Amino acid sequence: MRRLLKFLPPVFGLLLLVAIVFGLHRVLEKVGLAAIFAAFLATPFWDVVRAVGLLAASICIMAAYDLPGVFFARRCGGSPHLPYPSIGLASFCAYALSHVLGATALTAAAIRLRFYAHWDVPPGGIARIVALSGSSFTLGVLSLLGTLLLADPSSVPLPGALESGLLRALGLALLAVPVFYVLAARKRDAVVVLGKRIALPGARIALAQIVTSCLDICCACAILHAVLPAAPGPTYTTTLSLYLGAFAAGVLSGLPGGVGVFDSVLLLGFSDYLPAAQALGAILLFRVMYFLTPACLAGLCYAGHELWIYAARNRKP
After folding, report:
1. b/e map of 259-271 (b: 16 or more CB within 10 Å)?
2. Is this model's pTM higher than 0.70 or not?
């Protein structure tokens, strides 16, 4: 039995690698090279340069996504001190690849398990890292959407004519969730939900979660806004509200990269501002830059890490 358990981690890593290759292949099949080049050539040079700079910043944020969870695991004890490059590698690979593989929560957890288990992080520590990293996006969406509804309800394109007072009340309700989370984390070490005790990370780590997620979402949306055609179209806040809805719908769909769902929601939202062909070209270019480029880079990083583990294991006497 112990011999079989020894083979479990490398087999698990190999299966993940196969899933990554398959997921990338499925997504790339649905993106035509001719359409990519057409969208690229239709975008002004300096807009592309700005978008590439924002993409570099976004990749750095992806690499920092696991830091609050790692700090939480370390604070609870039993978790080893990990170098920042290792944390960045696990965080970037889990973030970038989970959107290509689909079932984001499960695949991101599986990739993090592979990395952190290899670095001798105990199961409880891995669970804390996965829980905080997985909840960060939801907290960021609630924070940003709540702030948008409170500050400028008219910038959020919702179906139907709703009064600004009602929209602000909705924004306040959304914003109350992350605020309550931070306050609860400040005053209590744990809460009991449905009879289960759930440890809280503390106010500083909770705030770090929310800030990291908000920066990630705002930076990704800035990439999309940068490649939109120059026209009297949507403002950044309108693009942000559309992006929040489209990204959340894509994640909930469970499809790799939210293919179809993400694009359809954005295309519908931009239909009041831009011709469908121009909007679709910008969305396609954004998808290639924000989803496919980091995913391909993360796939290479993951494969290189697996090869390094295999070589290190064979060097042992």
Report:
1. bebbbebbbebbe
2. yes
